[in-house]
Amino acid sequence: MNRREFVLLDDGKVCPVAAAVDGNGVRLPPAALCDAVGWELKPQGLCKGGRCVPIGGETDLANVAGVDLAGFARLLARPLAMDLDEGVACLGASAAERAAQLASLKAPDFTLPDLGGQLHSLSEYRGTKVLLVAYASW
After folding, report:
1. In this structure, are residues 81 and 92 in contact, taking their beta carbons and an 8 Å threshold?
2. Total count of domains within the chain
3. Residue 90, pLDDT score
4. pLDDT for 8-47, tens place per residue?
5. HEC states along 18-78?
6. Per-residue pLDDT tens for 83-138?
7. Three-state SS for 126?
8. How far is the C-alpha of 81 from the C-alpha of 70, rounded, in Å?
């Protein structure tokens, strides 16, 4: 495995990390995993805030080379897209997170300019009815 710069995309954040990359995958040092996505490797498993996910059955998930990124994504049921040649990976939201977002009936916030260039955020209109019109030339 060779160490090199790798970019991890997670929840809109771009996180450059030093990773061990080979033909089979990517391993992140535990400190880099914590900095990039907030999950910390502890004796009880992978932890974030008050939530810990045991990794007892996943013997190859964490070793001296680091935490296997694909194994980490599988453990948390999050989709992962990786391009080893380009040195980039993107972690998607889990199905449970997406389902909870849909069940809440609350649209995620975003900001877009109007025709005059003035920025508008959806959060400015919370509590009122909003009609969004989208257009694509293709």
Report:
1. yes
2. 1
3. 93
4. 998 888 999 989 887 778 999 999 999 989 999 888 889 9
5. EEEEECCEEEECHHHHHHHHCCEEECCEEEECCEEECCCCCCCCEECCEEEHHHHHHHCCC
6. 988 989 999 988 888 888 889 888 888 898 988 999 999 999 988 998 888 888 88
7. coil
8. 9
For residue 132, is it within any domain?
A: no
Q: What angle do CA 125, 128, 131 make, to 5 degrees?
A: 80
Which is nearest to 16 in space by CA: 26, 24, 30, 6? 6
**What are the backbone angles phi and psi of residue 103, rounded to the nearest 5°?**
-65, -30
Q: Count Cβ atoms within 10 A of the Cβ of residue 76 and give its class: 0-12 exposed, 13-18 middle, 19 or more buried.
A: middle
pTM: 0.71
Quote the domain boundaries for residue 56: 2-97
Q: Which residues pair with 78 in a beta bridge?
A: none
Residues 6+ apart with CB under 8 A from 84: 21, 23, 25, 26
